[in-house]
User: Fold these one by one.
Assistant:
Number 1:
Amino acid sequence: LGYTREELLLMSVHEIQMRYDAETLRHRRARMVPGTPLVSQGLHRRKDGTTFPVEVRSSLVDLGEHRIIHSLARDVTERKLAEDALLDSEARTRAVLNTAVDGIVTIDARGIVSSYNPASERIFGYSAKDVLGRNIALLMPEPYRREHEGDLAGGGETRLPEVIAIGREMVARRRDGSTVPIELTVSEYRFRGETMYTWIVRDITERKRAEAALQQSEDRYRRLVEESLQGFLVYRGSHILYANRAEADTFGFASPEDMVGTSVDDLLAPRERERLISWRAARVRGEDVPARYEYEGRRRDGTPVWVDNMVKVISWEGQPAMQAIHIDVTARKLAEDELRLYSAKLERSNQELQEFAFVASHDLQEPLRKIQAFGEVLLEEYGGTLDSEGKTYLEFMQGAAVRMQTLIQDLLSLSRVTSPTNPFEPVDLNEVMGAIVTDMAPKVEEAQATIRIGDLPTVRADPTQMYQLLQNLVSNALKYHGTEPPVVTVTSQALPGTGDVELTVEDNGIGFEEQHAQRIFGIFQRLHGRGKYEGTGIGLAICQRIVERHGGTIAARGKPGQGAAFVLTLPMDSQERGTPDAADA
């Protein structure tokens, strides 16, 4: 206290004790009984004014005429500090328990719950008052409750050591009877001589849901890969790590497992190995090389197979590897080879056709010209000596020669349609139709026909063939007319979003049965006898060839006695088609 003995003897007790005033002290003393000590705690004040905690043990002593109070005061500063630290620690622990995301449950060796934090209430749905003092088996689902009750609660010695400081996943029971997946970690400690266990419970519902979704996704991907018609191959270096069914089929293996462990280099044709091994090394080094290419491979039996190959670097079991996706294009390659052979044959055929056209234009027509010339001489010089029957025969001969010459010329025109002639250039179809009307003026006047021309476009085409195309269609309209004077209408319209234009040549002529709409485009196909309408039956075939060469289409529609219409579609910017030269360009 810092006082001397003499100073203390002159002081009142309440000057030293800080907690109680004089009245309180008198009241406490009045309740004291001899033989029964009174223990109290309070603060004493030192001479310098500082205070310190004390524990006072006071006893009433009877001295006969007098009673005195004998007090022993003990400085409990260290104990108070320890108690305050303990209270502070308990407060911090309580704050941790109350704010923890994970459930924290404390049980004794019999499984009786002694603490249960708010997070546990959220996880299990039980309030603390519902669980405290009860067995932890309450939180375990049937049929596992009995197992948990025996192993984790009542018989901790059996299985608790398996999860102490390690943890495991298990299923717990909520208040509503539903189950919740949890991750449980148990720690063991001693408290007042008793073994206690602390359970750290984490709700892993979302994790389990994510794992299930991931597993489902992996299963779907695995099924897609396994059942895919494309081959999947994974390899590291040249060592094959995985192959699917389609890959095994492509390279002639009995099963995907037979491919695992073999070398990817064995799947290459000898002439491809050096190129592809170099490519693979460059790809691994990260160089900019194509990820997709075709190569010739070898099946297990040594037969060739062509594959379309797309490769990328992936992670396989934590290490880089190459994934190849293969499409068997052997059938396409064979078809391309056949197409090349066919194109070569077609080119030879076209050459032969051009040679035939040359012969037809010179050698075949020369005898016909002589027949016609000598026929005219006979008719002029000796016509007077021939009777009517002889003249008729001579006229038949000359008519047949004319028809033969026309037929040869039409065949020659047909052969020239797909032969390279004039290059494509912008062609104003209005100008083409103007030239046709001028050239056909005598026929138009003779038939008393009317030709109506709409606003026609400019297309990229062969100008000579555009003239031939429209001239043939107009000529047919003038030829196949009924009793009424022919009316021919030529119109056009753009086809939105296609870059094409539609031309229509329509007439009011005799028409035709709809069933013949395709037939009339065949060579030598005529719907009427030669005696009624002249012609060789080649004109519409020429039209179809011209349209197809320009990448378009032509169709016909009509009804008997109601006229016919020919509908053409042509690209505004045509590229020549239908010839080997165009295909190779």
Number 2:
Amino acid sequence: MNTDDRDRTAPAPESHHDAPDAPPAGPGDTDAPTGPTRRQFLIGSAATVGGVAAVGYMFRDGFEDPFTEPTQHGTGDFVDSYTARDVIHSMCMQCNTFCTIKVRLVDGGDTGATALVRKVAGNPYSPLTTQPVGPLPYDTPLETAVLGTATMSRDSRSRSGGIACLKGQAGPQIVHDRKRIRKPMKRVGDRGSGKWRTITWEEALSIILDGDQELGTPGLTSWYKHAPQDAVMADWEAVQNGATSQQEFEATWGDALIDPQRPELGPKSNLLAILGGDRMAMIGQRWALQSFGTINQFNHGGTCGVTGVVANARSHPTTGYQRMYMDIDHCRYLVVWGSEPLTAQKGPTWLAPRIGRARENGMKMAVIDPRMSKTGEKADQWLPVKPGYDAQLAWGMIRYIIENKRYDEQYLRASGERAAAGIGEPTWSDATHLVKVDDPKRGKLSMVDLGRAEEPQPDPETGTKPDPESVCLVGGEPTGADTATGLADLDVDTTIETPDGSMRVKSVFRLLTERAMAKEMDEYADESGIARAQIEDVAHQLTAHGKQAGIMSYRGAAMHANGFDAIRAIGYLNFLIGNHDWKGGHIGAQKGYSPYEGRYDLRKVNEPRAAWGTPVTREKTKYEDTSYFEQDGYPAKRRWYQFPGNLCHEVIPSVEAEYPYTLNALFI
């Protein structure tokens, strides 16, 4: 492949004046003032005095009077030394990067606190917060780490700590904020009045469980009921079959269900909803779904790029990988798409230093973002795509790559793990798999369709039914995609004979090609707002560095109505160059850990109350399968979401509409 090293430099910004010129004097204004008016002077003086006063308060609260300090500045006996006993290694919770941190403590003095946070820095033992130098060896004693190590480059990481972004460094302000809520509070005024009083934890628990007459709220114990799904729905099926009556069903389950006329809504335990963020692994998965038994537990995913997460997971079905990160250390050409790794997107601690070093080592970088971001300022090319038109830009690049045959054909022809292993590839794609184009569902042709395999049976434990083996052509012969060892035919449009007759099929790659060729390059350029020459140049560069190139994308392209399709299209570009799990390519095989595993088994709950029923958000529920559709038909009162999850933004509107039901309690 050829490498095009042309650079692109953004035009210099226009100069700006600090303020417009003063208006000229009017006719006959021979004595017109040339300086500020008395009114302007007074306003300016007031602003200046206010600013000085604010600064004065800042310094008064932060420092002693410089004229009454016992020693002159810089001549005191205070030193910033500390020992391992003054350090806590913890995790930052200021965002969902969860950086490992080193917290330095000092004595609480006369504050009443056992200790005060002196500083928050990165953990010097962690690779997450020590880039690009690298972490201390795990066997370095804590006492040694606080004194500093032999090399200057690591002393700053060892003694002072690793990297922490500004959010992380603001930790002491959060911990010691005078208005930080440290005890439960009860509203004592009208709702919205802002009147509260502090209560004890015992009072809070009593109000939650037993209710409060002053607030007029019932306690959980007054309405909580749970019922097992299998027993309820078995009896409901008997009602539908006429084996038992509705009255008998309600006598058994009526007190435990939200609506005995609609048992699919689930038990009354669903009348509690939990909205949470980063701690939902325990609160939601363990307590809500297994202990309390409410189906209504939601994290922030519904408003936080879930379209991108699902799109990535669907693009990597064997691993369910949810992100699009690159091996920046070895990358030669990086496209940052809808992401800001230098100042956000989990980047300041571990991505920004790596990008800086990679740029110093010669890595080229293009940034696709409607705004000129900090990452864009450091790029070779900036592509200000129209917001919401990322998919059109991606399809334009796909067309260029296919039309000019700049894809990795050998990689794309590996239909499964065996074929990939034969050519030394760690991953594979379904580019050669055949699709039944005349089937309304356009499903993949399977070995079952050819009569060469039995229909897979559901897993006895999970009930999940695996997909049958897909079919590809190897030298024109239908072959199981998983069992094929040779390279399959890539561009296929043909007819296959099956026990049920002839069937028209096309390969996934052929369908991808047809989709890309549906529009001309000039149309993609016009829709995306990016010049055709620039689209082609970036696509050319992306395919000019072998597998040491790729795209890193995040929420920017995902947070639109078409975000799922946009991220899928962007992901196809990584597949076309076959860069998955190669040095300098897309990282898809990260190692992780389970927070549930270890000394204690946090997955199981004794005598669990398994959650079931229809979520109040109507998510993961097909409207046409509900009693509401049977009763109301189209249109539904509010939208039903068959596929998405964690629709936290839909909870309150659904409760207000009482559709499909309301709530008795909300825990945020």
Number 3:
Amino acid sequence: MNNGVSNFYRYLWATVGISVIIIGLVFCYIKAESNIRHKYDLQLKAHTLSNELLQSSNDLTRMIRTYAVTKDLKYKQAYLDILAIRNGSKPRPFPYNGVYWDLKLENSVGAYRMDPPIALLELIKKTGMTSREYAKLEEAKKNSDELAKIELETITLIESPSAESEKTFHDTINLLNNHAYHKAKEKIMKSISQFDLLIKQRTAQSIANHKNTALVIRLLLIAAMMILFVFLWKLYRSLESIMGTSVHDLYKEIEKIKNSDNDDEEQPTILPEIKYTILGWVLETRSYLIKAHRQQQKDKAELETVLETLKEQKLVLDAHTIVAITDTRGNITFANKKFEELSGYSQEELVGTNHRFLNSEMQPSSYWKAMYDTISQGKIWHDIVCNKAKNGNLYWVDTTIMPFMGKDGKPQSYIAVRTDITELKKIEKILAEKEASLQMLLDSVAEGIYGVDLTGHCTFVNKSFLRILGFGSEDEILGKHIHETIHHSHEDGTLYPSHECKMYKSNMTQQPSHVDDEVFWHRDGSSVAVEYWSYPMFQNGEIVGAVATFLD
């Protein structure tokens, strides 16, 4: 797939590059076409202005001839105005066409506007003509000016004192129509014709050059478009290689993802050649979703089983254990049935109430502070607690409080699990009373009494034992090996091994023994002649140790 992606980006950048080239070529082509139109416009403008020069010459001839015949001063003024406009000494009418003076003479030029004065030669020069072309135009203008001299001479003749004579009239008409006049007119026309020819030749060549440029650009554009098509095709094929299939088929596979949660949906087959394509990824995703759905169904079934088991365990828990959940301020948010039964309060009375209302005041406030300090640090707290029920009775519970920690590492709530041990505490009290009575009985007899376990270590002694052998308290003897402490040697000081001890043998044989010829050893190191009796102790049919009594 990495090679496919590399090809895709290579073709993509190539396509972008060709597209940029095509855009550039389009702009160049537009520019070339614009240049062609511009050259045509210049050609037309130059031709129009040269025609204006021709038209002005014809208008001058027409006005002077009409003036010579009619002697109407408006034709003379029109003649002078034509010269002034052409020379740039009067504003130019726009548009300045062949019918202007026909309208002007009849005072019908209301629709024409007047532009700033500018000489006709200056206007033509702005069209970008060559020096050769301009020289021809100047020649035409010079010839026209020469003709104008003849025409101005005619005006002088018309306005002379003898203008009314037939001879003067004849001379005037002859002056405007003789061979010299027509020859001068011919020079003007010839110069203008040559100027037009030069303009046409130059612009035709320039237009041809621009057309050739446009043709080359057009051919390059066609070639670039063909190359672009090739790269687009390769880009499409490269994209298909990355996708692993066509866009249509890929879309159909994506649509199948929506059905991944159907129980009868089959696992898709992922061929090696499409494993690292988008299609392969889609199929892997679909396969994963199908597996996830099946696992979800399996987990759901297992969860239902677990929930059913938890439900049964909850029934057992409610029958035996007290469970409560509180927030960090001690307000109860959950209490189970057993809690209701033991405390005497209903669910409605418990939930929302602070746990302190169950305080029996059997434990001091420092006790509860130590408990809170423990659980607020995220630690589990365990102890025996005395609470007070709704009816005022006290009850004892073996309590374990465990904090539920939040993401910030601080407790979010606490769960307390308690076992009712009230009856056990009552039994313990009875046993403690009986033990105290038994201890009083043991302490009241004159004989020393002690007990040992199977290893020979002391388990209890009475006060007579302590008095006879010089011990200050039972802590000095409890847990110690009794033989090595008070029975380690014979009266003559020789070592008395424990395995030879008759009391030890009594434990081994599980038979009582009586000895009256041995000594015990006082705490101060002196011997004490004793007579002792040893009896094995049994529990559930098995020996657990022995009890011995002795007299000094």
Number 4:
Amino acid sequence: SKAVAGHTNGTVYVLGHANGDLLAAARAAQTAGAQVRATFGLINTVAFSAPASKISQIAARPEFAKLDLDDVDQLLSIDTKTVAVPYGDQTKRGTHDIGADQAWAGGVTGSTVTIGIADSGIDSSHGDLGPKITNFRDCTQVAPNIFPGLLSDTAPGVPSLAGENIGNCRDTNGYDDNGHGSHVSGIAAGSAAQNPALPGVAPAAKLAGAKVCLAAGSCLNSGVMEGMIYLATPAKFGGAGADVINMSLGGGRFVAAWIFGASQETNSDTETMLANALAETYNVVFAIAAGNSGPTLQSVGSPGVGSQVLSVGASVTDFDLDATTAQTLHGVNGMVRPEAAVANGGPGRALASFSSRGPTGDRIIKPDITAPGAYYVAAESSTGAEVRAVDALSGNHYAADTKYAVLSGTSMATPAAAGAAALVIDGYRKANSGATPAYFVTKAALANTAVPDAFEGPVTGLISGIKSHYGGMKPADLFPLRNDTAAGATSNYVGVTGEGAGRINIPAAIAAATSGVTMYTPLSRNADGSLAKNARQPSWAMDSIVPGSSKSQYFVVQGGPNMTGVASLTFAAGATKEAEGVLSADPRWFKIGKATTTPGGKSGVVATLTVPAGTAPGMYTAAIAGTADLGNGVVQHLRLPVSFFVPLSAPSIEGPVWASAETDYSIVGAENPVGDITTDWVMFPMTIPAGATNVTLSIYDKADAAHMDVFVFDANGEEIDSTVSSNIDADVPADAAYAPTTASSPNEVTIL
């Protein structure tokens, strides 16, 4: 009665999991005498109420795969009354897709949380942003950091992070001469004061800003790192005391032949190391953009590759999948991927084609999750010339609106995820007298409860958007999809490499952190005391495993402090719907135990993977699915993605290499606006036998049509050698000198 207005005794509240068609399940429940209260397309579920006498009849209907008790009390235990919120309908926005509006209705709006924004600034004159800014510093005057290492952390009582102090930020009023940071801030925590229909994900959260990028959008590492430290440092030590820090920026892999070699982004990158260290030192959730270099594999940028950060990919708003351009909120492109809207019985999901894919150069699963990042309508800075110009040219529904702009990118997805993390923290604090969850518990709650199985959706940027909006060109022609069976691919899905655990589900994440269960790998450290790359991960990533051998992983199973009793968990492995060029592991290769945990307690479970002899080399993924019986008929579902590599063991291997265009390895290509490698990596681990004097690697296209190169990297992602650095063709701009790499004329490199 405290949770549902008009409740009558004898009424049972149920979540019915549809067996395919969601609407058919809703009609079946209604026909059987139930009152349909809501449908949740994200999880193909119908919420209904019915007299207790009707439940067994409904459970027997073939339209339902399973019935669970509606666990709305899990969320409402955070605040025991429904709150009227001054926001408009969110159906056409990504905020609705991730359940932010459900959290607001339960009183969880981020009011106890501060979100730090390390970006181009925040416009303090914007009505949605200015009143929320508690701290702001300009960090763009810091000298470039030309030495490897970390910044000194001089807060009293906190161990130094070691390294050189390269400058300081200065206090100033909030400003933004680019516009990117204000847009990001509006997505994370905009108050909707200027437009009730456009709130941020955590609309009551406070904002702290660190301007780390100049008007043109360039961001020196040194300034970024100073901004990170300022935002993360507690207020009592002179910092902003942010609980969540948003970083919608990063650098990608690249190579300029004859100048410098290729690099793979890893946890040894300086910014990444700092983010990892600050997360642990100050218990801060870092939400960092995965990058916009998709759909090629291994394209996640730094510091988004950080093991302790929440790396974010960009999803497409559900409404936009099969709505016309005129029907969309933004007015850029509609009908993004209609077949995704009805996938698996519908409604389905899609990842933006530009969203960077994993794994990282040190072979961990990134991105961790996805959040809405395509055609996002949010605050526009009055002084942000670059964003204002982009918005005016695009011809979208907000082109003439000086308060709001439409942008796409993992830059937009990341503040949506930062806002989601803020809601999880806010919900936890309101349920636990102000206590704060560990950063890795917040991260695990978001990842464990995420919703997988996204298609790919072509999403345009500025130039391509103009071509499609004014020139009539199709986004799918401008951005060929990697995963499209209609075009000959083996799968429509982006898989673990694209979506990590899946798209966040805020109400489920709040429930998991407070009154449910979270799972993650245990604490482990490197020899230097830093966190190991596989520590505290809501996933299981392995380097390589030789066929015929096994590997095991222990997972911490943590009970939320508001659980009502002992939780019992069972687990099963499942095959993933993977991207083109990635293999799905057989679920029979896994053996997983059972676990129990108590309110606020920790236990564990061991998973073992055995790869059969003769398994083909390549990258494999899977997922561990957990079912937690929380008592009183309440069930929680968890998911942990898995990835591993089977190394080269035969003299040769064949495999697909996807590419939408030739790579320009020249210095011209390295300095182009994308600044990234546009073709795929296909990565195979290799162990060199003891006593070997040289190893020759060669590559060619079986069709004798494409130019191909081979790179050799060490375990830290640094190039040892490649066919590019020794091939003058690669130094000629725009691929002018490239020739097909054939069986009779392969590209070869010899090491050792």
